[in-house]
Amino acid sequence: MYRDLDFDDDELIDELRDLGYNIDDYSLTDPEFRDLDFEGYISDGADIILDVPYVPTDEKIVNAMLDLAEVTSEDVLYDLGCGDGRIVVAAALERNTRGVGIDVDPMRITEAIEYAAHTGVEYLATFMEGDLMEADFSDATVVTLYLLDLVNIQLRPRLLDELRPGTRVVSHAFDMGDWKPEQRQSCGSINIYKWIIPAKVAGTWEWTTNDNDTYRVELKQKYQQLSGKAWINGTEAVLKTALIKGDLIELVVSQHNNTRAEGFIMRSVGHELIAVEGERQATPAVRIMKP
Ligand SMILES: C[S@@+](CC[C@H](N)C(=O)[O-])C[C@H]1O[C@@H](n2cnc3c(N)ncnc32)[C@H](O)[C@@H]1O
């Protein structure tokens, strides 16, 4: 029955309502929605193809997303595909956060601007009509998404390349394929996911300690997963731990499997890995070879 329907987004919702479905309770993850054979959603009244139909996030999930991202007044939040602006407005109202909402549908942008004005947060909330695939969101410290898995995956390289390390990305219902989240949280039957943009640290790094030992590590990186090899004073050693979270890296190296391990915590700053205070590392690690 559903497959016979015509997929104009608002028309579809009206048709489902006429068929007796409580469409207000629907989300993109509901089986009926997910089973539809979409080939692009068309905005009501305008010649716009949407990558994702408009389905607003429930208020409880909006709050859970803001909590999961640990949004504060220090953040700049971007909602890509912002709909009526509810995530940006909630962050502004409840956390004093500056936010930007981008949506390709001008009707949604009008609604979002009105909503921000109505709630008195227009000085914190900016809404722009545009395609999320092309918009500049590089000054975000938090990005929220309620798109679709394939759209997330299409967006993934831009998130990884253009956002600063440490930026949090939170998605309602849809994951990022083989980029595993740092955290997943269930809100009833819906999952929300959080990723932290990792610094790019693949390559060979070298640094010297206070007592003049030279450490070298060769790191491979896939998203936030690090692996590799280590040397101490030119002799192959054991890289016991290699972790990255945002711009912070933890490396633990020992001479052999059963000897005392030395741990280093460094921050990726520009082209160097700088020792976090109190570390035994004397010089910044410099990259002597790219992967
Ligand atoms: C599922 S709704 C989410 C709305 C809002 N973020 C929320 O969580 O309530 C997806 C939104 O993405 C917008 N959208 C779809 N394709 C887009 C594109 N290429 N660029 C920008 N917005 C897009 C739709 O107009 C719709 O408002």
From TrEMBL:
One of its GO terms (biological process) is methylation. GO terms for molecular function: methyltransferase activity. InterPro entries: FAM173A/B (IPR026170), Methyltransf_25 (IPR041698), SAM-dependent_MTases_sf (IPR029063). Keywords: Methyltransferase, S-adenosyl-L-methionine, Transferase. Its EC number is 2.1.-.-. Coiled coil: none annotated. SUPFAM superfamilies: S-adenosyl-L-methionine-dependent methyltransferases. Residues 79-163 form the Methyltransferase domain. This is Class I SAM-dependent methyltransferase.
